[in-house]
Amino acid sequence: MELKTSRMSPAGRAAGLPVENETAGDATRVVVIVPHLTRRGGGEEGLRRSPEARLDEAIGLVLAIDLKLVGSALVGLSQVRPATYLGSGKVEEIAELVKAEEAGLVFVDAPLSPVQQRNLEKAFAAKVIDRTALILEIFGQRARTKEGVLQVELAHLNYQRSRLVRSWTHLERQRGGFGFLGGPGETQIEADRRLIGERIVKIERELEQVKRTRALHRASRKKVPYPVVALVGYTNAGKSTLFNRLTRADVMAQDLLFATLDPTLRAVQLPTGDKVILSDTVGFISDLPTQLVAAFRATLEEVIEADLILHVRDMSHEDADAQAHDVKGVLSDLDIDPEDDHRVIEVWNKIDRLDEESRAGLFNTAARREGDARPIPVSALTGEGMEPLLATISQRLSRERVSLAIDLDAADGGNLSWLYRHSEVLERRQDGEGRLHLAVRVPPDRAEQIERRFGARRIKGTGEGG
User: Fold this and answer.
1) Subcellular localization, per the record (predicted)?
2) Is residue 463 part of a domain?
């Protein structure tokens, strides 16, 4: 086992996690432990992702909520121990590190059972959290919209209910505390379970209302109708930086895991004059807690409904291929075919971080892929590659949509207004006889309706690339 200590200056306190004291400048001192199976049989994930890359990501998770990293360790395991996950010798070594560094928190980057968590806390004399708990804390700090806050709390409650944890300080503030809610003869665990269950039911009702509101918003956008382009990718792949580059918006774009949580929507005008709605979504990650995959499905509805998906990849990362595999797995869970090259465009980001040799190799690899499978190398930071990316988006969207020619009387304001509401008007001109000649673009499923209503004619070469 390789133990490392780190003397990093604190960047602030962590929300929702135990803190040594309440002084503003203090943060929880944390030791990061990354177990990895050293023999075959650990599954495909263990074979694809290097332990060192996993350690880097685990440290990134810790720094995402400003914990003070004071030590880290890669722990090789021949097998998982039911009582403590780690072997007894490793537990003793880590306990010495925790004591020496005066750490109040140990983050074990693995799924711990309640028994394993309790036993490790006794051995380390410190609070222990696993991967799911830390990601929940990060999501809780990042959530900004009402839906995001509710989704995080729902996932957190389900996680806590499975462990029957008794101290829920934030719920005590909201509901008056467990001690006042239990009926006669009700045990503490029963009271906890009942309280959490009641809160879950309430949140689920609120989320249903939020979902209905979102559905209305999506329906109104479809009537505009601008196509939706969704950004997806592994967390910290540069999606928000690319979003800002394309929209000139001010979205939180930091070198932090999960810098974006709630989806952000902006209208973007392409160089051709076409307008699209661009959606920035939460970053994906390996071993995303199952509670969050389910809870954030609604947040990812923008991806499910998107006309085009940009899969943003950090090509400077040593685990770029493994990260892409994880993203494709989440897309598959959303019933989206990640290999559908008509709908998914790979955007190879962060080429500004590559040396000349790596850069040349990357461009050669991209050029060898044919047709729609060809990725677009870009640097969202410097702006390199934006023109070919925008051109590809425009070309792909126009191929999927149908252009129609329509003739109207200039005085027919009702039908003209209808067309502006239900189609994208590309061209409008009036002849000397008072007739309007329009070129409009619509999704394929709306083309027949407009053809029947206006006697519209299809403009050759559109709507044939499905």
Assistant:
1) Cytoplasm
2) no
**Do residues 24 and 100 share a domain?**
yes
pLDDT, tens only, 46-84: 436 788 888 988 998 888 887 899 999 999 988 999 999
Distance separating alpha carbons of residues 345 and 376, to the nearest angstrom? 8
Rounded distance between C-alpha atoms, residue 317 and residue 330, angstroms: 20
CB 136 within 8 A of CB 155: yes
410 and 394, same domain (yes or no): no
Q: What is the mean pLDDT of residues 371-398?
A: 92
Main-chain phi, psi angles of 251, to 5 degrees: -100, 145
Q: Is 80 annotated as a binding residue?
A: no
Global pTM?
0.70
260 among annotated binding-site residues: yes
Tell me phi and psi for residue 341, to 5 degrees: -70, -15
Residue 466 falls within a domain, yes or no? no
Do the annotations mark residue 56 as ligand-binding? no
Tell me: is residue 238 an annotated ligand-binding position: yes
Say if residues 236 and 378 touch (Cβ distance below 8 Å): no
**Is residue 235 annotated as involved in ligand binding?**
yes
Q: Annotation-wise, does 352 bind a ligand? A: yes
350 labelled ligand-binding: yes
- The total number of structural domains in the chain stands at 4
440 is in an annotated binding site: no
Residue 239 marked in a binding site: yes
Q: Contact 229/347 with Cβ under 8 angstroms?
A: no
Confirm whether residue 180 is marked as ligand binding: no
- Whether residue 122 is contained in a domain is answered as yes
261 labelled ligand-binding: yes
Positive or negative torsion for Cα 167, 171, 176, 179:
negative
Q: Given a cut of 90, is residue 31 above it in pLDDT?
A: yes
Whether 334 and 348 map to the same domain: the answer is: yes
Residues 76 and 36: their CA atoms lie apart, in Å, by 5
Residues 128 and 153 in one domain: no
User: Are residue 387 and residue 306 in the same domain, yes or no?
Assistant: yes
pLDDT at 219 exceeding the cut of 80: no
